[in-house]
Structures are given as C-alpha cells and as structure tokens.
Amino acid sequence: MEASGGGKHFVLVHGLCHGAWCWYKLVPMLRAAGHRVTALDLAASGAHPARLDEVPSFEDYSRPLLDAVASAGEGERLVLVGHSLGGLNIALAMERFPRKVAAAVFLTAGMPRAGTHLGLTTEEFNRRITPEFFMDGKTMVLNTGQGARAAVVLGPKLLAAKLYDHSSAEDLELATMLMRPGSQFVDDPIMKDETLLTEANYGSVKKVFVVVKADACMPEEFQRWMLDLSPGTDAEEIAGADHMAMCSGPRELCDVLLRIAGKHG
User: Fold this and answer.
1) What b/e string do you get for 226-252 counting C-beta neighbours within 10 Å, with b at 16 or more?
2) Is 84 a catalytic site residue?
3) Is 71 a catalytic residue?
C-alpha cells in the first residue's frame, strides 16, 4: 500500500510471518484522520515476490523499510510503527536514518536498548517460552546461499490461541490464509553486533512502547521488561486487545497513534 493524503506520515511494519495486510483496518482510520500511511511488506512477506530462502540476511529482509525511509522527502519526519518482530526492523531504520524519524512506536514489539545487540529481546523471549508454546507451529530448514537457516510457520491453533484470541473469526481466517514462512534471523551476525545500535542515532529517536495488556503471545510482564530496559521511553496501554491489536482493537490503537503523532510528529 502506498502513502496518500496529507498530515503526518505513518509507516507500518508487520511482525513475523505476516504482511502489510494485517493493518487493513487501521490504514483507513489513519487516512480518514488526515494522515499519510504506508503499510509495508518486508522481503518475502505478504505480497512481496521473494521467497524466504532468497533473503540472505535481516538487512535484506528489512530492505523495503530501509528504502522507504531513505526515500522520505527532505524535511519529512516519519512515525514508524513496528509490531512484534517488526520492532527490530524499525530499530535498524532508526539507527540508519535518525533524522528522518519523528517518533518510533513499538506495538507489543521487540525493543532493544542502545548499546546492546539487536537480537537481545528475541533471545529473551525464546528463553522464557516453553516448547508447548508453539502448539501446531512448524519449524523448517531453508537451504540458502549462506547455508541452512531455520524458519517457522505459524499454525492455525497457535494463531487462534496466542495471536488472534480476541480477534474476529474473519480475521483469524484471513490470517490463516495469508501466513507465510518467517525467520527471526537469530544466527545473522547483525543480531549479535553490540556496536550496531548507538546512543547517537538509535538512542536519539523518541520511542513509545504500546503495552497490549491482554496479549497472550507476548505477555505484559515481558513487554514491561523491555520498557524497563530503556528508561525515558514513553508508554501507552491498550486493554482488551490481543497480540494483533490492529485487528482486535483498531480504534483504540488509532487513538493512541494519533496522540503520539500529535505529541512527537
């Protein structure tokens, strides 16, 4: 989806195995409020033409976002919104283009601290969950030009129990139809580089974490652990929505984003 309209410019970044489609309720709400919106498909996600085994690195996976931020007009400052794993994509964009970002919104999303490695929050999340968490999710091995890499497919039972448990049956069905294999890129060297996220760049961008209190995938306790990692980060809360707050609580999320844009945009 391309940006249109006036006002602030929101760039929406989906999480693991998802695509731009998951923002379909939120995009028209933000546009109706007079803002520009770009909902992106990251590489090998949504309607993006690449296959996951053709995406060699997290940087390549993030390329659609990095290109979109790089091409923002002179003087245009974006509001980046990253959901779930998408928090790491916007963190990379903030480090590369801090002066193009007015504010970064982490919607129940991975939010690393400046001076730590990008994969920190993913490692902690994976440490906290049990094998039973993934239910009917499947792991697979991709043969890439860089060797074998693990990928996951989120199964319908997992989606229903952990991600879309407060969403409509229609949203769950849509997600089940549109899921694609995804990767956390845990073995990518960029995930382990403790010099990547600097105070001067990433740390200089205003961050807002949106706590989704009823999230069964990324519990509130874990969300607040990430908030505590980064003192000075603003916090907003959404009650009664699931991990996919853009589906189960789009009006509440829209109100939060409009408030953030009015304060920081």
Assistant:
1) bbebbeebeebebeebbbbbbbbbbeb
2) yes
3) no
Q: Report the alpha-carbon distance of residue 142 to residue 105 in Å, rounded.
A: 31
pLDDT tens string, the chain, 265 residues long: the values are 444 445 899 999 999 999 999 999 999 999 999 999 999 999 999 999 999 999 999 999 999 999 999 999 887 889 999 999 999 999 999 999 999 999 999 999 999 999 999 999 999 999 999 989 999 999 999 888 778 888 999 999 999 999 999 999 999 999 999 999 999 999 999 999 999 999 999 999 999 999 999 999 999 999 999 999 999 999 999 999 999 999 999 999 999 999 999 998 6
Burial of 4 (0-12, 13-18, 19+ CB in 10 A): exposed
Would you tell me how many other CB atoms lie within 10 Å of the CB of residue 75?
7
Which of 45, 62, 84, 167 is flagged as catalytic?
84
Please, are residues 209 and 235 in contact by the beta-carbon 8 Å criterion?
Answer: yes
Predicted model pTM: 0.96
Instruction: Please state the φ and ψ torsions of residue 212, each to the nearest 5 degrees.
Output: -100, 105
**Helix axes 120-128 and 220-229, enclosed angle (nearest 10):** 150
Coil, strand or helix at 198: coil
Active-site option among 53, 171, 188, 215: 215
Return the percent helix, strand and coil in the chain, to nearest 5: 40, 20, 40
Residue type, 169: A
Residue 62 annotated among the catalytic residues of the structure: no
> What's the CA gap between 107 and 243, in Å, rounded?
9
Amino acid identity, position 149:
R
